Description:
Blueprint (H helix, E strand, L loop, with lengths): L99 H17 L5
Amino acid sequence: MAAPLTQTLVVQESDEADDSGLSIPVRLVKPDGTPFAEGVATIAWSAITGKPSTYPAAAPAWSAITGKPSTFAPPAPTTSARGGVLQQAAEPQLAADADSAAIIAKVNSTLTKLKAAGLLA
Length: 121
């Protein structure tokens, strides 16, 4: 007698459950109780129903898509208008012989500009 529901069973290589107890071994048998023999079944592609006519389904050509911009170039950034980024005021380089106070001031100035640009919290 056929069961009302189909259950997927995973055949494992061991007869022991794993440590979690979630993976329980199964033994496949035929309706008469004899072991189900291992084997490979070959199914023809033409025997599968409900499949798409092409695989994968073809995407439309870029030229067939409507409503897209023909080109895109972000506006040039300024200190008040974003382009790809918000332009910041120039930060001159440190002198090669800068002392620690000048280095600290430069780092703090750079961090302030990054925060003002919204790149740092």
